[in-house]
Amino acid sequence: MKEKIQMTTPLVEMDGDEMTRILWKMIKDELILPFVDLKTEYYDLGLVKRDETRDQITIESAEATKKYGVAVKCATITPNAQRMTEYNLHEMWKSPNGTIRSILDGTVFRTPITIPSIKPAVKNWELPITIARHAYGDVYKSVELRVDEPGVAKLVFDGESGKHEEVVIQNFKGAGVLQGMHNLDKSIRSFAHSCFKFALDSHQDVWFSTKDTISKKYDAQFKVIFEEVFEEYKAEFEKQGLEYFYTLIDDAVARVIRSKGGYIWACKNYDGDVMSDMVSTAFGSLAMMTSVLVSPDGNYEYEAAHGTVTRHYYRYLENNKDISVTSTNPMATIFAWSGALRKRGEKDGNKELQNFGDQLEAACFDTLNEGICTKDLVNLMEGITPKAVNSAEFIGAIRERLEKRLG
Length: 407
Hints:
Blueprint: E1 11-15, H1 18-32, E2 40-44, H2 47-52, H3 56-68, E3 70-73, H4 81-86, H5 96-104, E4 107-112, E5 130-134, E6 143-147, E7 151-158, E8 164-172, E9 176-180, H6 185-202, E10 205-210, H7 218-230, H8 234-240, E11 244-248, H9 249-258, E12 263-267, H10 269-283, E13 289-294, E14 300-304, H11 310-318, H12 331-348, H13 351-369, E15 372-373, H14 375-378, E16 387-388, H15 391-406
Parallel strand pairs: 1-2, 1-3, 3-14, 5-12, 10-11, 10-12, 15-16
Antiparallel strand pairs: 4-5, 4-13, 6-9, 7-8, 13-14
């Protein structure tokens, strides 16, 4: 057997929960460790360990990502009331993704994995559309009030200098609701830098959309900052023949539907949340959606865009941990590993590792293009006769084709 591909700098490895944790080990054992002398700094972000460490391990994993520059993350549980009871938690811990995004000051880029046999619901889409979601503020850090009587609602700012500003939001004549949200120039600027850097890295145009005609200060500030930051990248965009394009969010939606794809669509937090699900569904499946968190200073964290596949995990447990009873799609998780290994290779000048990331993805495509797939893709495929297999069989089929490619 050929010598394993060597690594010089470790990846930050963040393990996760439920079915994706089972697949994580299978992917490593079958598709990574036989071919790569894998070096990782390991963090168990499974809910049990996060509870044991009072979530300190999540913070440590994010700091390690800032140190080493590239991380790969398994899907994790964000606990709710049901999980509090199920896992006997000390606290309803925050989303690990939210914590990591905040520490890295990162932007989430989500791109569908496309194959010829699965046609997008939008017939003119020929190339993937990458959603860049600003992962800070807006409605996700808003405060809200329910008012049940007439009164005056005001937006008030008291500056440290003593400056006082206030505007009337509404003179309520009866019951209603209020919401206050914010964003930071620093975070918006980081978002813009990440978008333009990722565009140059992936050689794609950037479309950005808000509603500055209505939101003349809040949304308008996003537009202003993006225009300022773009000046730093304009020459390189022109050199690569790329375009930065701004339009209103409603116009952007219409343009996206009419487009052929093949660009980055930068969105505010809520817009990105909604549009990433729309794009992934229109291209086929959330299980075929990659996700990478990119910080403005060039740190990367790769993961699948989906959750922990709880339903399949319970079925796996009910059948005495028999993996053959589940047909969970591991594609996005495999692509998290391939993306992280390729980026690690790029940063270290390790061509062999870069090539391995490419060949692993190509072996996945070879497998799918022969019709071998998990059950979720069977009814989506056209022009070939799909053969549904369980997760272990699917990963095994990929390994066979990877071995052929690597020689």
